[in-house]
Amino acid sequence: MPISLTPVIPRNITRAKRIAKQLHGFYPRQQLSACQATTSHVFGFKDWHALEEACKSADRKVCGPFDEELDEADLVDRLTNQFLIICKELGGVDPEADHRAPERGERDERLEKAGARWSVLFARTVLLEVFPTARDAPESDEYIDFLTEHDADELERLPGLLGQWWAVNVPHQPEVGAALIAFKLNPHKKTSLLLFGFYWGSLCMYYAQTISWTMAMGVAYMLAERFGSITIQQKGTYVDLMLSDDPPSQEMVSAALPTFAGEAADAQCDFFNCYPRDDFYNAYSKQPQVFMDSAKETMKILNTPGTKRGTWADR
């Protein structure tokens, strides 16, 4: 039986229940029972009952290997299969379908296509945060402010600052401002960056006549920048360099920076490729400095309480 289809018995049913709850947190519109079914499928079982029975019997002779026991090719094969399961069952999207942004399309069509692309990237990111068939649950990491102009504290405060700005500049939609303030952005989780990015990006589509380019591009860039930084730090080349027996010299780090910067830019493009403002992908590819400058200006605006800057009326 192919590795991707070999059932894996978790070390206990508690681990499986925790994964189902995690998936429910990532996909709150799905019922918990649907997340339990998907959990059983990524472990290689037909349903939750079969997974529970396997945990009770714990017959390791018929248990497939955990992720740590696989070679790279088999691990990629398994993760690809699990990604497809999560994307289709919980995201409701076929990642192999054509979800490219239309050259000319109405707002709702553009948002629908962007949402599909976002669902694909989100499912992949969810899988790599959960790693369901690892022997043990992955530890929760914190990432340093590497190749970023905006630190983790700024990102954490961003939804609250935007909510306060919204209350002043879009007072006829107070519920949106309240939702922004209530959003708990975790700058150490790519899933959190994607979730907030899609929410803010959608607002920038629906309120395109109110939110200025500076505000729209600035927030998008801060999120994409952090997304790229985490991506680098999760990669083997960065980890090997920083966690080597001997601390890396400044010369070694400097020599590696062009590679890291290129990988960060690629990850940022991945982020923009699924952003609700689909015009940002090409704009960022051609003029990244405009986005960087907009991010700095956005923070100046947001750190000025009661300001009426950041709208198209501010010209």
The overall pLDDT average reads 92
Percentage beta strand: under 5%
How does the overall form come out from the CA principal axes? globular
The helix fraction, in percent, is 55-70%
Which blocks of ≥5 consecutive residues have pLDDT under 50? none
- Supply the number of structural domains: 2
**Number of discrete helical segments:** 13
Count the beta strands.
Answer: 0
- Rg for CA atoms: 21 Å
Largest sheet: none
Structural class: mainly alpha
Distance between the termini: 64 Å
- The SSE order reads HHHHHHHHHHHHH
List the helices and strands and how they pair.
Blueprint: H1 13-26, H2 32-42, H3 48-57, H4 72-89, H5 107-130, H6 152-169, H7 174-182, H8 190-206, H9 213-234, H10 236-242, H11 250-273, H12 279-286, H13 288-302
Helix pairs in contact: 1-2, 2-3, 2-4, 4-5, 5-8, 6-7, 8-9, 9-11, 9-13, 12-13
How would you sum up this structure in a few lines?
By secondary structure, the chain is an all-alpha fold. The protein contains 13 helices and no strands.
What does this structure look like?
This protein is an all-alpha fold. The protein has two domains: 3-130, no CATH class; 152-302, no CATH class. The chain has 13 helices and no strands. It has helices at 13-26, 32-42, 48-57, 72-89, 107-130, 152-169, 174-182, 190-206, 213-234, 236-242, 250-273, 279-286, 288-302. It is globular. The mean pLDDT is 92.
